[in-house]
Amino acid sequence: MDEQRETLQRIVSTLANKNDEIHNFIDMLNHTIKNVQVSSSNAISELDEEFDGLYSILDEMKGSMASTIQQEEARKIQALKDQLNQCSTALESSEELLELAAQSLDIKDPVEFLKAATQIKDRVTMASAFRISLKPKVSDSMTHLMVDFALERRMLQAVKFLPVPKAPEIDLAACLVADNCITVSWRMPEEDSRIDHFVLEYRKTNFDGLPRVKDEQRWELVDYIKATEYTLSGLKFDTKYMNIRVQACNKAVAGEYSDPVTLETKAFVFSLDSTSSHLNLKVEDTYVEWDPTGGKGQEKIKGKENKSSGQNPLLKSNRSGAPSPKRTSISTRSLPRAGRDHFTGESYTVLGDTAVESGQHYWEVRAQKDCKSYSVGVTYRNLGKFDQLGKTNSSWCIHVNNWLQTTFSAKHNNKTKTLDIPVPDRIGVYCDFDGGQLAFYNANSKKLLHTFRTKFTQPLLPGFMIWCGGLTVSTGLQVPSAVKMLQKSENGLSGSTSSLNNIAYEHLTGSSRVSAAMNSVVCEGVRLVCLDPGGV
Q1: Up-side HSE of residue 145: CA atoms within 13 Å toward CB?
Q2: Quick check: pTM over 0.85?
């Protein structure tokens, strides 16, 4: 019966998943239909614009060429009219001279005849009728202004839709996700010399498989990629997956998108839990800031403020105007939120809202430059509201104190180990739950600061203590490749890295005194602290 029920439950789950896929595909089809209609309308509009532009050019060319013909006509007519006027004037002069010559033939006096003949001869020699050309200056032909659009007509008849580049093919095996970067590689199904550039689009999602239409983020675009590979860097992996697609573009048009691929972008993401943080802490998502008025504000709301005096006797200030962490306290009564009380007293603590239960995870912390005191680490859920990080056997941290002089230390089970190294401006936290390691790194250089080794028996919450300053937490980060390499190098060494867990263990098992000689081993830039064989 139980086996059949389990089988039926698997069938129900499979059917539900399949129905969800079909619903998503139906949404995609409807969305595609709408896009086809919109794209078709846009294509027709662009076609009308192109033909209207072509018509406009032809009309402009027709007007210009007609004007040229008319100008040529006017020029030829004017030239012929000028020649006609010259001929008419010459003809009139010639007829007058002809009549005078005919009259001279009737002169009987030889002397007068000779004189008249000489005058006529001189006038004939100078007559315009003998100097003008009897050939038209221009012809009546206009063939030099004829056109033949046979070639252009054939070209227009050969006009087709633009050649569209084919969809690229993403090489999934060559794609790489590492260090919060995604390298995407693709190729064309066939060589196309007309391709000018590529466009890459990516979108975060929490769904595996084909991209969905509803309830998804918008596509981010990277344009004008000249190569067939591109690396997206500086990403925050705050979703489980990333959809990727690519399209090729020539000088005129973009082609179809490639089949989208979905890459896994799993990383540890959490926010700071303001529901249980100390009342003197102002918490906003991944930022926490110490606020000396926070506790007073809460007490005033609850009517706990001491109205008999102008100053709360429990809140004293030092010369810098900031209460000392050893001298500051607020009402020990806390407000129950989300299943646990607010931290109170000197435990200026805030926890992450997501627990680590398995696997390897990484996050980073940056403190304000003027921060007086802060701790970064992890804890089990059972950290009491008065407890401080590193002072219980269920919490581990590194602590920075800038109050009078800068001290840097690792803490666990109320045991402190001084770290004789500079305090980095960003601290990376690496937690290998299954491997029982909690390591702290200089987030910039990836140099190891300290490692705790233990066996974690309960889920871990990121923990932070802050006094007089602020902390910014960066989540959604993958374990950096440099950290992975350092961990492999460290784990490959003989002997184990010293931690306060070893000291605490000896203390808890009845050892009255721990006198371990500490040796420093440097390997590939990693500082490892190892127990001397003759020690604990």
Answers
A1: 14
A2: no
